[in-house]
């Protein structure tokens, strides 16, 4: 019992010390670990992929094997999500891809514009109280001609367009040679790229 | 031993242990590192994002060597290469005022905001200081001839990418190329290309900047409203503070 009481007193003394030490000027080294968010691996709605392929809303595309750049001994992971790319022939002709178990990254050029595509089904969750939750609701989202909602941002060097399809998150980024090229400081060019998408080797990625 | 004296001894032990974690961190120049809180922008430069989240626990600081200084470029004052801008405390400049077209959901103002954190290396010299891979991953975008000389690393954790802007545009200064695998700490390029602009002219005449790294964190986020699941920029400041503290401790 005595030990418990002395421990309680000691903790109280330390508590006073710590609270006084915390009342420091604004600029101070960190002592507490910041919050960290969790991730989940989303389920892919493969049934909708099949429906979209049959309806022509999405077309399949057979990618040349040498387009995948992270092969090891001739093998790369097969991403467990639909690998979507803009249906632009010049982009697809010289596209390079990195395949991972739950994601992919692609890059190429369209009419001199550098294009990057990221798709993933590993998603960061929003913790309770994260201001992003409310911010997302107030974001401006628009709709592609096939009904897919998208959100676009203009950045320092180009444009980023994100959308969600089949449960995965996709991002298309474009950068031009110069800052005053309107294709990269207004959304229209990035939007035009995603109006028509292909799915790479659809038989290979579906479970 | 009395209850009181035993308590005091125990308290002294605990205080000693606590004080260890308050130990001041000094950089190689002997300066004590300090930083202002997330979201505390320079007065009258916009509204910051008060976000204490470390989005990438364990991330390596993206500039190889300390000291480095996270603070404003656009509103630096005192000459952008002036010594006043190469000292602590660090200051957040994510969400700082920018042209209206630049938007980010994680900024209170949403539009007209800065979308990353600006970091000065130890000196103002161009094409001298190495930027390094902050995480294991691959170079998934490489555009040295673009207007902001971008390099992106897609993480092996598969849910975020890191965007480095204003890197050197010289081939020799960018040892990692598109699709190359990178390990945490690998030199990926030198901090170099100044955009918007060396001479502060042209259409971005109000954006005179100097040699610095602009660093962005893009994460794939599952929204409560599933249709709005997608990629978002996240405030990088707190993650960078944590990474820099480990660099100063010699445990990058």
Question: Overview of this structure, please?
Answer:
The complex is a heterodimer of chains A (207) and B (252). With 207 residues, chain A is of the alpha+beta class. Chain A has one domain (35-205). Chain A is built from 6 helices and 12 strands. In chain A, a hairpin with a 3-residue loop joins strand 9 and strand 10. Chain B has 252 residues and is an alpha+beta fold. Chain B has a single domain, classed as Glucose Permease (Domain IIA) (Distorted Sandwich), CATH 2.70.70.10. Chain B is built from 2 helices and 10 strands. In chain B, strands 1, 2, 4, 5, 6, 7, 9 and 10 form an 8-stranded antiparallel sheet that branches. In chain B, strands 3-8 form a two-stranded antiparallel sheet. In chain B, a hairpin with a 6-residue loop joins strand 4 and strand 5 (150-155). The longest helix of chain B is centred in the first third of the chain and has 19 residues, at 3-21. Chain B starts with a helix and ends with a helix. The interface between A and B is large, with 81 and 88 residues.
Write the layout of secondary structure elements.
The complex is a heterodimer of chains A (207) and B (252).
Chain A lengths: L1 H21 L16 E3 L4 H10 L3 E3 L22 E3 L2 H5 L2 E5 L2 E8 L2 E8 L1 E4 L5 H8 L3 E2 L5 E6 L3 E8 L2 E8 L12 H7 L2 E4 L1 H4 L2
Parallel strand pairs in A: 2-12
Antiparallel strand pairs in A: 1-7, 3-12, 4-5, 5-6, 6-11, 8-9, 9-10, 10-11
Chain B lengths: L2 H19 L47 E2 L46 E4 L9 E3 L4 E7 L6 E6 L4 E6 L15 E2 L4 E4 L22 E10 L7 E5 L2 H12 L4
Antiparallel strand pairs in B: 1-2, 2-9, 3-8, 4-5, 4-7, 5-6, 6-9, 9-10
The gyration radius over C-alpha positions of chain B equals: 20 Å
- What percent strand of chain A? 25-35%
Per CATH, the class of chain B reads Mainly Beta
Low-confidence stretches of chain B: 13-21, 201-206
* SSE class of chain A: alpha+beta
Helix percentage range of chain A: 25-40%
Q: What Rg of chain A is obtained from the alpha carbons, in whole angstroms?
A: 24 Å
Low-confidence stretches of chain A: 14-25
The CATH topology of chain B is Glucose Permease (Domain IIA)
